[in-house]
Input
Amino acid sequence: MNRSLLVLAALFATASAQASSTWHGKCASSPNLLINSASAIWFSSYNTSISTATSIAMKNASSLGFYTSADDDSTTSVSNGENELTYTYSFSGTCGVTAGGGCTFAIYDTSTNIRSEIDVFMDGNIAWDTDLKLADTWGYGAAERPAITTLLHEFGHAMGLGHETRYYNMMGSDWTVMTSNGAAYTSALGEDATTGLRALYGSTTGSYEDLAVSHWRYSSFSGEYSTHARNRVQDSAGTELSYTTTAGQPVYTITKGAKGKAEVTVDNNGAAAQTTTLKLYLSADSTITTSDTALLSQSIYMAADVPSTGAYAVTWPSTLTSGATWYVGACVDASSTLTEVREDNNCAYIAQLKVR
Output
């Protein structure tokens, strides 16, 4: 057998439906990573992050499953015949790069393109967010990297995906790929990565649908990684409104009674295209629900290929009080007509607003 070893990393700098983003080597069956908890950095909340990320990775629309379980020994190494997940304090020595996050090794047969071993190493020198609080994380001006997004990035590598430069994507800068509603966030592999898995392994049998909303969008790329920026609130001509930054987040100034636009990113993480209802809302807090004040209801078509960001027209109510604070947000499948494998990522706030 001709064997080859590859390594990809989720770096500080920070694939695709089109198989160009797939990585070398496919999985012959659903991988099961053995969790090695011998490292001194291991703690229960990180185990919870692994469990959460595993559950999310399992909820993909391809025929490939994904599992993690406890290791049967206290050692981890590449080329030992086991699929493993662990921490390393010597990230540059283990992964061969100086910037940290995570890295994945894959050993595969060059003649069959089938993998015989997968090993994921997480950087023990990073402050990880494990409680899913927005205010703690990089994307919101804080010091912690979201553990579940980096785990999902590495799990994407483990399942055969490469890095992505073109779209809002988990296989790019993972720490901003999330659905944020209220003070908490969740995440998903995302539409493009899911479509890449379906291209590699085929779609799962039966109905397997999942729609999501985010207040992040594709911006550009850095090296091998897509980079992402916050969705914007604009005037009716599409010019971004003036804003201040509070706690790492934009606060836009709106004029009551004026027309404007709000950008929304939608992901179809399922196996089939959907025509659904997108609604925009005005809320007194950052937790958007379908009982908030509706600003817009629009039918949208969501092809299951790559995520999309659109600017949707709204009129700010003339009855708003000057100086008051509001939030604009969005919900997809707002009428709850689609049966989904997840319902916790259908709504997200877009931005905070201050009324002029």
Summary: The chain has two domains: 3-201, 214-355. The domain at 214-355 is CATH 2.60.40.10 (Immunoglobulin-like). Residues 1-5, 11-21 have pLDDT under 50 and may be disordered.
